[in-house]
Fold:
Amino acid sequence: MNKQKHWETVYQTKARNEVSWFREHLDTSLRMIQNTGVGKDTAIIDVGGGNSNLVDDLLERGFVDVSVLDISESAIADSRDRLGEKADEAYWITADITAIDLPQSKYDLWHDRAVFHFLTDEEDRRKYVELVMRSLKPGGHIIVASFGLEGPERCSGLDVVRYSPETMHHEFGNTFKLVESVGETHNTPFGTTQDFVYCYCRKANL
Structure:
């Protein structure tokens, strides 16, 4: 399956509020980012940010170094159109997270809501974790949200991996300390609910 073609089709055929993961404001993510204590000049990357408005909320709060990475050019274009002139205040990266080489020790904070659980192949998860290890600064922060153990087994026609805080932390290993985990019941635009788990880990300051 061509992953990029799959996600281009999703974003070209559905409005941003017609996908199951849509949430007007990612309140849990914003709270966890705030609780890390990072400064406004912190380098943040939102992996799978697509047409999420997390970038809008971060720019509104005064963060000045925000990158959005997504596999879909259509999702990125939608966000840029929504932001208008403010789009130039963010950095935009169109890429498959398992097939890109990001700069070493570039980011202070890595955020991912609902990409990691699509990595059903062990090798893809290994590539993802290695990329986090390389591109996140020592002492850096990572916040990953995935389907919890009671979440759906499939999403957007694809299989997913469901996680507990313990199994999520195990994927990243002892280089990362699990600082906080939060469960969330996500209300989809279709009137259903999905079980999510958010994990905040801190990279060892080596």
Summary: The beta strands are 43-47, 65-70, 91-94, 107-113, 136-147, 154-155, 158-159, 176-187, 193-203. The chain has one domain: 3-203. Residues 128 and 189 are 29 Å apart (CA to CA). The longest strand covers residues 136-147.
